[in-house]
């Protein structure tokens, strides 16, 4: 019985992911400027960090309960903006690469960062586009 329930739950999650991917691709996909932080997270982050922010064990760091996520904005913004190749500023190394999202607007990055800082059990202040712009203006890639 439990296996059937787990399978049904997995099917629901898979259907949601597929619907999100279908909505976010193709010529009729909404622009980033019209999407919420949650929708932008679904578009750019969900595949690796999962719907609940738990990530894939051993491959990516969890966002839920992360000191990096709830700490100062600059390191997190730099991490998301410039990506990470070798595990980055997390306590242990992860084999997967964090892609760079510097091509996203300051507003879109602020919405994504605000989403991850206020969901998954995290309780940190919102990030403003101005905060992201300051990190972008400082330039340079992430040291990780």
What would the keywords be for this entry?
single chain, 144 residues, mainly alpha, Cytochrome Bc1 Complex, Chain D, domain 2
What does this structure look like?
The protein has 7 helices and no strands. It is 49% helix and 0% strand. The protein has a single domain (36-138), classed as Cytochrome c-like domain (Cytochrome Bc1 Complex, Chain D, domain 2). Residues 11-28 have low confidence and may be disordered. Helix 2 (37-44) packs across helix 6 (106-118), helix 5 crosses helix 7 and helix 6 (106-118) packs across helix 7. The chain has 144 residues and is an all-alpha fold. The protein is globular and about 35 Å long.
**Approximately how much beta-strand content do the residues carry?**
under 5%
Q: What's the CATH H-level superfamily name?
A: Cytochrome c-like domain
Calculate the mean pLDDT score and round it: 78
Helix content: 40-55%
CATH topology: Cytochrome Bc1 Complex, Chain D, domain 2
Record field, number of beta strands? 0
**What is the H/E string?**
HHHHHHH
Which architecture per CATH? Orthogonal Bundle
CATH C-level label: Mainly Alpha
Rg on CA atoms, Å: 16 Å
Assembly of the depicted chains: single chain
Major β-sheet profile? none
Topology readout:
Blueprint: H1 2-23, H2 37-44, H3 46-49, H4 67-70, H5 73-82, H6 106-118, H7 129-138
Describe, in short, the structure shown.
The protein is mainly α and 144 residues long. Helix content is 49%, strand content 0%.
């Amino acid at each position: 019985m439990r296996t059937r329930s787990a399978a049904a739950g997995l099917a629901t999650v898979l259907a949601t992911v597929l619907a999100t991917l279908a909505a976010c691709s193709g010529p009729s996909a909404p622009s980033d400027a019209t999407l919420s932080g949650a929708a932008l997270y679904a578009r750019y982050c969900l595949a690796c960090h999962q719907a609940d922010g738990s990530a894939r064990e051993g491959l990516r760091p969890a966002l839920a309960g992360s000191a990096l996520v709830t700490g100062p904005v600059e390191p997190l913004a730099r991490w998301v903006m410039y990506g990470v190749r070798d595990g980055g500023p997390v306590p242990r190394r992860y084999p997967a690469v964090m892609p760079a999202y510097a091509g996203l607007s300051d507003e879109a990055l602020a919405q994504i960062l605000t989403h991850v800082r206020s969901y998954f059990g995290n309780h940190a202040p919102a990030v403003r586009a101005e905060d992201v712009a300051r990190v972008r203006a400082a330039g340079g890639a992430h040291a990780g």
